[in-house]
Amino acid sequence: MSMKNLRKDNYPEWYQNVVAEADMAENSASPGCMVIKPWGYGIWECIRNVFDDKFRETNHENCYFPMFIPLSFFQKEAEHVEGFAKEMAVVTHSRLTSVDGKLVPSSPLDEPLIVRPTSEAIIADSFSKWVKSYRDLPVLINQWANVVRWEMRPRLFLRTREFLWQEGHTAHASAEEAEAETKQMLEVYKDVSENALAMPVIPGRKPEHEKFPGAVDTYCIEAMMQDGKALQAGTSHFLGQNFAKSANISFVNKQNQPEFAYTTSWGVSTRLIGGVIMTHADDEGMVVPPRIAPYQIILLPLIKNPEDKDKILAYVSQIQQELKKQFPFGEKIRIKVDARDRKPADKFWEWTKKGAPIICEVGMRDVEGQKIMVKERIKLGTDEGKQIVDVNEFCQNISSRLEGLQKQMFNKAKARLEANIRTDIKTPEDFRRYFAESNVWIEDGKQGKVAFVRGKWCGDDATESLLKEMKITIRCIPFDQTNTQGVCLLTGKPATMDVIYARSY
């Protein structure tokens, strides 16, 4: 089966093939876990660097907390522990002992330790020691870490038992300040998702039954994948005083009265890489937006005659040095010279499957004519995809070329999103017929079979069972409400609230 047919007919298998062919990650010998290989980890590093700059711009500082959390810390917050209980990994012993040639656990711990599924509980404990007065607030921190959640159906980058993420945690003197922080960080997530990952998103608030355990409100950004399903790309939680009360994060306010702090938490993870794959990859493999590509330009020397080797490599080195003078996106350009002793076609297709934004081939004819062969990954297979251009012109215009490719990728994904948000479904009967279809790969800018429906919801808790029955979810309550009268697409009751309905990952 071709990759194109695979993308249409077996999207999950196509996804796994893209990851494997791009050499991004593989399943580990540790069940449910993954090995992130250099190209995949390089993408994560680029994503992380963009976020880290944004966090610093918003006055957050990085720190680190233990991955082992006493069970009693979770038991202080009943709703929180209930939400994560089925996913928790627990350490109960401190060492192994050999018995009849077999290693068995020994030395039970006085208190079991939870392997970090998220850090609200242990960070709240530290905040309780740091915060004594309103003068100590706000506390604005971020942590880059790994977390463990015992997923039963793991999938590379999307759901693995251990994954990488960042988690921001803040404490404030007022609810208004904390909620402003929550929304500010959601806007940071939206900005990075759209401008670095070229992945358009819908921002909004989660319904009550989809909130983070223990939160007052959860805000999110939702992206549409090529099969029409939704991917939650980031969440930001207004926790109110819930965690502050359980951990005693209290302070003396300006009126010299004791008060509990208001806290927030927010996070994104390596799941974003899965989102980038399912937003941009095509029939040939991975396509990486230039802003987050480990290498934005690949230079491939084509050496047919040994006597030409020194001249070609010197010319390639000259190109490399000229390119380094340019700063696309205001950042140092990232270049890879691939001079491995392999067939040029093999190297070209390797970088094509990895999704490198620009692949350049340089042979003796280019040296003599001061030219360079340029192939842009997103234009592969078109007349524009392969160009012979003046080398000086190429080097001088590389920033605008890369920035243009980034914009094209975003516009392509945005056209897909906008074409596949149905707003014309007005009755429960039409709604059920729509979601009775299967998700399929959808053409860019064209309407597919099943994707997002923007329609009314009555807000009734009883609708949760209807959603489970149909195997769909309410992804978010968009911020841009129309406030028009209609009927709930689940119950037929009068409703004014707009929500996004979809299948999801």
Structure notes:
The model has no long low-confidence stretch (mean pLDDT 95). The chain contains 16 helices and 25 strands. The protein is of the alpha+beta class and 505 residues long. The strands form six sheets. The protein has an eleven-stranded mixed beta sheet, sandwiched between helices. The two termini are 25 Å apart. 34% of the residues lie in helices and 28% in strands.
Would you spell out the secondary-structure blueprint of this structure?
Elements (H helix, E strand, L loop, with lengths): L2 H7 L1 H11 L3 E3 L6 E3 L1 H20 L3 E2 L5 E3 H5 L2 H7 L4 E11 L2 E14 L4 H11 L8 E10 L13 E11 L2 H21 L5 E5 L11 E8 L5 E11 L1 H6 L2 E3 L5 E3 L1 E8 L1 H10 L16 E5 L7 H15 L11 E3 L6 H11 L3 E5 L1 H6 L1 E6 L9 E5 H6 L1 H22 L1 E2 L5 H8 L16 E6 L5 H8 L2 E6 L7 E2 L6 E2 L1 E6 L3
Parallel strand pairs: 3-7, 15-16, 15-17, 20-21
Antiparallel strand pairs: 1-2, 4-6, 5-6, 7-8, 8-14, 9-10, 9-22, 10-11, 11-14, 12-13, 17-18, 18-19, 21-25, 22-25, 23-24
Helix pairs in contact: 1-2, 3-7
